[in-house]
Amino acid sequence: xxxxxFKIWVHGQVQGVGFRYSTQSQADKLGVTGYARNLADGSVxxxxxxxxxxxxxxxxxxxxxxxxxxxxxxxxxxPHQLTQPPxxxxxx
Length: 92
Hints:
Structural class: alpha+beta
CATH architecture: 2-Layer Sandwich
CATH class: Alpha Beta
Strand order of the largest sheet: 4-1-3-2-5
CATH topology: Alpha-Beta Plaits
Strand content: 35-45%
């Protein structure tokens, strides 16, 4: 397995609209582990770990706006080094 990991910050109307739970559901479908958590500035931080094709699919889903109830203005993505791979996808 040649896994990859990214941290993604999603800005817009992404809190209070089921964004984290929809992201968790999408990640579970794709076999991606990590987390989605709300940040104090109103954005959501996502850690995505898994096979490159699946992680890319999750990032594409986030960039396309995520769940219908959300409004995504901007998505920032950067590679991330992990000390320990996450075992599941959680919401925080």
